[in-house]
Amino acid sequence: MSNWLFDWLFKLSGWKVSGNIPYHLKKCIIIVCPHATWVDFPVGVGVRSILKRKIYFWGKKELFQGPFGWIFKKLGGYPVDRTKHTNLVDAIAEIYNSKDEFYAGLAPEGTRKDVKELKSGFYYIAQKANIPIVMVGFDFVNKKVMLNEPYYPSGDFEKDKIDIAKFYQTVPGIQKSWIKNYLKNS
Fold first, then answer.
1. Residue 47 maps to which CATH number?
2. Which of 54, 56, 57, 137 is the residue whose CA sits 20 to 30 A from 95?
């Protein structure tokens, strides 16, 4: 999903990438924070192009409706219906298990508003598919996208969410309630 236009726009806008997804890693779920503005999406598409990886994304189904829905599909989106209890974790884990190589990203905050907790589906998908989580931080202060080393969940979300919060605490400009909430008891 590399594209010279996305590469050029990403670089022209002054963004840089710090880190990479190891090339030996065939599958992972990528979590991106903060989900702060509509700018997240074009920056993410630029990062994907710079990394020269075919990275899909999970997004709310409403993005895929209306006159521009086809664009999100064409750019590698998978719609998610968040209004129903549909066993989505199992369905997504099965997608990972059915493929030899698959990378997909999502915003675990679930909204651009401040939240006290992350949506935990990404964690349970990683567990069920036996894949690592790659944490990506958008440093809007320095226009830098920070990629962390793959993180393998231990099976104890209460413990692992502290590690996740510690990574995102290092990303300049992120002042999110969920980080403070996760770290208050560590």
1. 3.40.1130.10
2. 137
